[in-house]
Design goal:
The protein is mainly α and 277 residues long. It has a single domain (2-269), classed as Rhodopsin 7-helix transmembrane proteins (Rhopdopsin 7-helix transmembrane proteins, Up-down Bundle). Helix content is 73%, strand content 3%. A two-stranded antiparallel sheet has the order 1-2. The N and C termini lie far apart (61 Å).
């Protein structure tokens, strides 16, 4: 039962108060450290990115900087909400799940983080590549839909099958994002003269983003092969650190050193899609 799975299974009622959930999080060193480390890194990253962008002057470079700065700021807010218990709850896993009938701590607030921060990553990449606005809009909407359906997969307790149905729907939206990054956006970046840095950031993004559905499938929410909320949380947090803060640092450093190329990419995008004006 609950005490046999340690921190994975909550030992308090499903109607637990926010303070009780927060206390449970803080009493689990592995779980709480995965949140507080990210809070610290998000805050430091935001300060660093403000400093790095002090000399940026072109409108397109400033827009990339603004989108990039939102990444750690959103994470800072979201991880603080997780640590406080505001966006964490207890759910009873449905019949058929390896932990069926047992209460599990769900960090559903992570999906809100991703729904707000990953569009900023894609916006920055799209601006860097000089993609046309229709494609940028489509990919960002698909990304948000991926996060929302992922949230549904994590929270459904009425049917184990439906958890996997929503998981597959989320993966389908993810496939749309991957297709654009690997094909159309890569072509646009080459034409805009930003192909080299785009390819590097795209590879980082694709490889790391593939890790999220894998962690979901193997962790408590999916097959529960890893029956530790703390371990699962650290896996997500480690992915976030590289996919967000390292990504953002590499992007801003390149933009600061190649602002003219970034501005030219915007001009190229405007010439390529006059119908958008």
């Amino acid at each position: 039962m609950a005490h046999q799975l340690g921190s994975v299974i909550a030992s308090i009622p499903l109607q637990a108060t926010q303070s009780e959930v927060a206390s449970q999080i803080q009493n689990d060193v592995l779980l709480s450290s995965s949140l507080w480390v990210n809070i610290a890194l998000a805050g430091l990253s935001a300060l660093l990115f403000v400093y790095m962008a002090r000399g940026v002057s072109s409108p397109r470079a400033k827009l990339i900087w603004a989108a990039t700065l939102m990444i750690p700021l959103i994470s800072l807010s979201s991880y603080t909400a997780l640590a406080s218990g505001l966006t964490v709850g207890l759910i009873e896993m449905p019949a058929g799940h390896p932990l069926g009938g047992q209460e599990v701590l769900s960090q559903w607030g992570r999906y809100l983080t991703w729904a707000l921060s990953t569009p900023m990553i894609l916006l920055a990449l799209g601006l860097l590549a000089g993609v046309e606005r229709g494609s940028l809009f489509t990919v960002i909407v698909a990304d948000i839909a991926m996060c929302v359906t992922g949230l549904a997969a994590a929270l459904i307790t009425s049917s184990y099958l439906l958890r996997w149905v929503f998981y597959l729907i989320s993966c389908a939206f993810f496939a749309v994002v991957l297709y654009a990054l690997l094909t159309e956006w890569a072509t646009a970046a080459t034409a805009a003269g930003t192909g080299e840095i785009f390819d590097r950031l795209r590879a980082l993004t694709v490889v790391l983003w593939l890790g999220y559905p894998i962690v979901w499938a193997l962790g408590v929410e999916g097959l529960a092969l890893v029956q530790s909320v703390g371990v699962t949380s650290w896996a997500y947090s480690a992915l976030d650190v590289v996919a967000k803060y390292v990504f953002a640092y590499l992007l801003l450093r390149w933009v600061a050193d190649n602002e003219g190329t970034v501005a030219d990419a915007g001009d190229a995008a405007g010439r390529a899609s006059p119908a958008d004006d």
